[in-house]
Amino acid sequence: MARVHNYYAGPAALPVEVLEAVREELIEWAGTGMSVMETSHRSPEYDAVHNETIADFKELMGMGDDWKILFLQGGASLQFAMVPMNLLGEGRSADYIQTGVWSRKALKEAKIIGNVCVAGSTEQDGVFFRIPKQDELDLDPNAVYCHVTSNNTIFGTQWRQFPDTGGVPIVSDMSSDILSRKLDVSRFGIIYAGAQKNLGPSGVTVVAIRDDMIEKCNDGLLTLLSYKTHVDKNSLFNTPPTFSIYLVGKVLKWLKGKGGVDGIEKENAEKAKLIYGTIEGNPDFFSTPIEPESRSHMNFVFRLPTEDLEKKFIAEGKEAGFIGLKGHRSVGGCRISAYNVNGLDSVKDVVALMKDFAAKNG
User: Fold this and answer.
1) Does residue 232 carry a catalytic annotation?
2) Is residue 4, in this structure, part of any structural domain at all?
3) One-letter-per-residue 3-state SS of the chain
């Protein structure tokens, strides 16, 4: 069977080169006579992979020695609780900016734990079609952190410029756009991301936490819910998801071979120009509700003139080898989730599909 164009929102596509390398090593890895899945997480062979993956992630992110990298489980959803559990408490509060479903879920968890404020929201009738402007935010200069979701997979919006928090550390869920563009990491205190969109397979969450944020973390927490536990043991307090971490390491090497974040950001911008240009170039057939300055370079949401045409487009796309073009069930329509692995050639192909479909059905 030929490989398809995988545009699922997540778990998402992995580089073919990575899958081929994993296939070669699946039975016998690194001279151990066994798979990495069978190797002890205390072994020197696995330890080398673990630490090299940390080093490559820090290099690609531009992070120095003042950052610690953790490999945890539970997805971004567990981080919605771990962040406030570790950082909120008596006399502390945090700001949360609402831009979509996942930021709303993060807020819900934080409210259970401590004092939080909604510093801004663009919700209208249950939907979010833009990122708030700076002058719409009511930020607390004394907040211990400001939480944002950098990219919104369901609604197709993205923080193209992060808010000016006046020095308050930003804590960001970057599950769907991690390592897709350059960042000034000095503005962030914690960055976390489920791996299953841009970093690797599901099953591991990468958490980057700055040293000064670790110092602010509460004591007396349940052992596995304390960042200090995982920092002290280099994510090896309990058995980590070793195979997923190994795969993240492979993807990071692939990304470095693509020119790193500089190279991938340039390609992602070209992909976005092609897709949005096709939507705007066919205004009688394609439309998107997302304001231009808020448009995601990862998840492209759009509508066709009727739901019947949308179903037909999705069905014909699947027949042609384009998988995952259906929009999220809560908003309908169509969606192209073009993460780092979905290269420029693939996007040119899906754009050709869009143009051909519009010509035949417009």
Assistant:
1) no
2) no
3) CCCCEECCCCCCCCCHHHHHHHHHHCCCCCCCCCCHHHCCCCCHHHHHHHHHHHHHHHHHHCCCCCEEEEEECCHHHHHHHHHHHHHCCCCCEEEEEECCHHHHHHHHHHHHHCEEEEEEECEECCEECCCCCHHHCCCCCCCCCEEEECEECCCCEECCCCCCCCCCCEEEECCCCCCCCCCCHHHEEEEEEECCCCCCCCCCEEEEEEHHHHHHCCCCCCHHHCHHHHHHCCCCCCCCCHHHHHHHHHHHHHHHHCCHHHHHHHHHHHHHHHHHHHHHHCCCCCECCCCHHHECCCEEEEECCCHHHHHHHHHHHHHCCEECCECCCCCCCEEEECCCCCCHHHHHHHHHHHHHHHHHHC
